[in-house]
Amino acid sequence: MSAGAGGAAARELDAARARVREAGGEALLARLEHLDAARAEPSRPAAAPRPPDRGAAADFDVVVAGGGLSLLLAPMLASAGLRVAVLDRARIGAAHREWNAGTAEVAALEASGIFAPGEVERLVVARYVEGLCRWHGGGTYPVRGVLDHAIDAGGLLAAARARAEALGVTLLDGHALLGHAEGPDAVALAVAEARPGAAPRGLSARLLVDARGAASPYATADLVCPTVGGVLAGLAEGGGARRIRPDVGEILATTEDVEEGRQHLWEAFPGRPGETTVYLFYYARSGDVGPGALLSLYARFFRLLSRYKEGDARLVRPTFGLIPGWSRLSPAPRAPGRRVRLVGDAAARHSPLTFCGFGANVRELATTAADLARAAADPRAPSAARDAPVHSGTGALAALMARPAGGARAGEMNALLNTAFAVLHAMGDDAYAALLRDEMQPADFIRFLRETAARRPEVYREVVSALPLRAIGRWGAGLARELYRAR
Ligand SMILES: Cc1cc2nc3c(=O)[nH]c(=O)nc-3n(C[C@H](O)[C@H](O)[C@H](O)COP(=O)(O)OP(=O)(O)OC[C@H]3O[C@@H](n4cnc5c(N)ncnc54)[C@H](O)[C@@H]3O)c2cc1C
Fold first, then answer.
1. CB of residue 66 inside a 6 A radius of ligand 1
2. 26 class by beta-carbon count within 10 Å (0-12 exposed, 13-18 middle, 19+ buried)
3. pLDDT confidence of 45, banded at 50, 70, 90?
4. pLDDT digits (tens, 9 = 90+) for 398-412
5. pTM of the entire structure?
6. Where are the domains of the chain?
7. How do strand 340-342 and strand 201-210 relate by DSSP bridges?
């Protein structure tokens, strides 16, 4: 890169930083920069306390490290009579996210017992008649019954926090978990206030729940989805691909072929009147995403937003993150001991294709809370969580998206996506929506693959050139296993 081009790139990063700071404040920018910096080296525990002796009493039954979405577990565990603490290196329940979900997730929130009657309904800020996926150089494919509710994420977490407080949960804002050591009856935690030079202090629990998302040292999933954007005001409303329709969610859309080695995707979910949450993201292998990935994606977001949507856009609230994804072609993220459980993004059990961690975790909320309550009493208790069968099929597609071909073949990814979504659309709304909701049955998934390959035979070459043979073998074996189970 020439000095001139390097200077322009640095200025663009500075401008992106300034826009995030202006809309979100210094603390939010610091969260972005912390996430970006953490990619510099593989995460590992920063301090290890002495393990508790046999018979040692624990301060808490459960400590939840990470007060993002997994904060929802705290009031549920406290309601079950457990002594619970939550700690977060930032403010607990202040996630830099907006969430879209379907009817099943709204029902799971209502059934969780966390919210007052009517409260979940009030947290739904928009509903859509349909969603759509649209491919550059290809078609637009509508679908119903998927991600068709916009949830007020800030309001949801504030309500969960208030409920946790009312149930006596100890909340440690601004406290980072640095490390832990497991003893026979408890786990010791090294915790420090998240400010330079703060001295670690000790805490202990019968069970540590690692809910630190992508920042957990045990979040070893092989894929990651860097995502940036936020709530925007001022986008033009109306018909046509470059305007927003307040009653339609844009689930996936591309505006160009592979650039800079990535197939970038957009999504746009209208929220409160006049506001739309817009994201830009790409699929990547975890090891390919280095420091500064989010800030440089923000620079691209601001530079190219007008390619996606018209209007005089103003960033109202920045939202961003690194969402881990597990392809099911490599070993799953594993907790380092019996008294530690991984939940949420750290465990990465959501779809590796849609990365809908909010939906997946909320649907499993009751199962997860019951699992954790059992594990606090007996760390050998097996987990009742089940992996959705379709994930053994979609993981390989996500791995394919993570290494798209560039150069003369830069249009292949859009062509493949266009064929795949044309097939899904032709299979009918039930099948199309089922894939995006993680509910597609293995036999339908195989029919989907067969029909896509029949319309686009190049897919065989694309799969073989993007995935090692061993991964292709695991993919086939995983699908065969799920087909057998479904008989
Ligand atoms: C921009 C964006 C939009 C999304 N939109 C959707 C959507 O519409 N629908 C959907 O289904 N999913 C969505 N997701 C995915 C969803 O947000 C995640 O799957 C979900 O938040 C995971 O919850 P979690 O509790 O595991 O982690 P998080 O919610 O990420 O929380 C992790 C917490 O851990 C804290 N932490 C990190 N390190 C430490 C430490 N050392 N000590 C203490 N605390 C620590 C962080 O400060 C953070 O608060 C989106 C994700 C992003 C990034």
1. yes
2. exposed
3. low
4. 999 999 999 989 999
5. 0.95
6. 391-486
7. parallel
- The DSSP call for residue 50 is P
- How far is residue 234's CA from residue 314's CA, in Å, rounded to a whole number? 6
The owner of tokens 């197939």 is: 263
SS3 assignment, position 324: strand
Residue 40 has pLDDT above 80, yes or no: no
Any atom of ligand 1 within 6 Å of the Cβ of 390:
no
276 phi and psi angles, rounded to 5 deg: -140, 135
Residues 6+ apart with CB under 8 A from 475: 329, 392, 393, 395, 396, 467
CB 77 within 8 A of CB 71: no
- By the 8 A CB rule, do 391 and 328 touch? yes
Q: Residue 158 — left, alpha, or beta (φ > 0 → left; ψ -120 to 50 → alpha)?
A: alpha
Atom of ligand 1 nearest to the CA of 360: 11
What span, in angstroms and rounded, lies between the C-alpha atoms of 146 and 156?
20
The two three-digit tokens of residue 264, written as one number: 């970038």
330-360 per-position pLDDT tens digit: 999 999 999 999 999 999 999 999 999 999 9
Q: What 3-state DSSP class applies to 341?
A: strand
> Measuring CA to CA, which residue among 398, 435, 448, 456 is closest to residue 263?
398
Q: From atom 1 of ligand 1, which residue's Cα is the shortest distance away?
A: 320
Between the CA of 226 and the centroid of ligand 1 the distance, in Å, is 12
Half-sphere CA count of 68, side-chain side, radius 13 A? 26
Task: Please name the residues in contact with 68: beta carbons below 8 A apart, sequence gap of 6 or more.
Answer: 88, 95, 97, 157, 211, 213, 344
Pocket probe for ligand 1: among 36, 212, 315, the residue whose CB has the most ligand atoms within 8 Å is 212
